Amino acid sequence: MNTTLNVSERRKAQFIETGLTAAMDMTTVNRLMECASFINAAPPDLLFLEGDPARYFYSVVTGYVRLFRQNNEGREGDIRICGPGDTFGDDLVFSGDTCRYSAQAAENATLVCYDLAKVRQIAANDDGSMARVLAMSLATQLQQAIDCVADDRLNTALQRVAHYLLSQCPGDTAPASFRLACRKSLLAGKLGLAPEALSRAFGALKTLGVNVHGRTIEITDIEALKRL
Question: Which residues cross the membrane (predicted)?
């Protein structure tokens, strides 16, 4: 299942480039590295389940991880799709001893795994640097969650997909072509859609100049997407 990796110089560089450590000074980075290890995970590996004792939190280096909850009937709902640079579970540094959702590798992934107990000890005893960086990470996640809820409430499925495609365009002029960063099933979860709803949206967007070939997207009329 998960494989612990040695921290090579390349791994150290990747560690420093994660979203969590980007705002840290090197002293704090080095302290955090003492609490960290690299792991590999592949679908359908579960990192943890809702209700498990909380022992770690994670940053994604490569690949994708889906965070989800499951109801009593076994139906699963994605909460968040985490990609390179994203951190999850860091809310547990400040409170809570139980995982509040489940996490599963959605693609082959390399993760930084942080020991919660050790991070809590550093955060409690340093000059506040660790706590400030963690608070910034959580504030960013909260802002993203608010944007996601607003997008879900205010925009149709078609608009959500169109806005996402516009955000991924390499430029502001047509024609434009790019490759989706993740599988369509993951993109559906990221946008809060069922896979079939995403397929219907892509079908409808074809009339507005969006052509989908596997994970390659071609857009011939950017202005039409902006008008949605």
Answer: none
Q: What is the pairing mode between strands 102-105 and 46-48?
A: antiparallel
Q: Which helix (H) or strand (E) holds 28?
A: helix 26-33
Left, alpha or beta for 84 (phi > 0: left; psi -120 to 50: alpha)?
Answer: beta
Whether 146 and 84 map to the same domain: the answer is: yes
On average, the pLDDT of the chain sits at 90
Q: Does 32 share its domain with 90?
A: yes
**pLDDT 10s digits, 48-82:** 999 999 999 999 999 999 999 999 998 898 999 99
φ, ψ (nearest 5 deg) of residue 121: -65, -45
The pTM of this model reads 0.86
Which of 153, 188, 206 is the last residue before a domain boundary? 153
| 8 A C-beta contact, residue 47 and residue 87 | no
Query: Which residue range is the domain that position 222 belongs to?
Result: 156-226
